Known about the structure:
By secondary structure, the protein is of the alpha/beta class. The protein contains 10 helices and 9 strands. The longest helix is centred in the last third of the chain and has 12 residues.
Amino acid sequence: MKQHVARKRFGQNFLHDQNVLSSITESIDPAPGDSMVEIGPGLAAMTDQLLRTLKHMHVVELDRDLVARLEKAYPPNKLTVHSGDALKFDFSTIPVAEGQKLRIVGNLPYNISSPLLFHLATFAPLVQDQHFMLQKEVVERMVAEPGSKVYGRLSVMLQWRYDMSLLFVVPPEAFDPPPRVDSAIIRMIPVAKPLECDGEKLEAVVLKAFSQRRKVIRNCLAGMFTEEQIIAAGINPTDRPEAVGLAQYVALTNLLK
Length: 257
């Protein structure tokens, strides 16, 4: 089969290190009957590993050349290939067995990682777990605690939906071509009962709060909340946005009419 050249516009960096692939597979721990979908299978290095255990899986791939390659390499009773953009893909269309939920995996393109994570969050109730390879810096932001310099909108919004843990770091030389940054594997397990609030309102509050993260939260949220409301949510008005925890942002959001 003709060699595929990685395409920069698709953010393609193909994982080839067998030790790393084995470690990821062990972390995912697939079972034969799992309803598994992989985002961006690329040259199918991870797909091949997973299909050693899985009876069948789904993949979502944007690059049409890779779609043709996958369809030629695997029979449809083993692999269902969805040709399209994961940012627009409706993950609720993936069939699951009764009593099961989706398991989602992938080496996510770093250039669209944040919007893709927010898109996937809308399907969280349908998902058992997610295991992704992402830029290490992004993973650190996702799991950051209040008070951290990298704690921000991504941290708050994803922690509202998921319990997350950084599993291990992957060096650039594990890829072809090697990216200029370290990567990391993250496990994301949807929270069974997220703190009750309107997600769109929470997003608006958090976006406004972190748009001027060097200012105190009273000034960041001026025009949206009074100082009395900020205090009522259990927040010190002179704290900076990164000092405010998820539960406090939720409490603040619930004060919006």
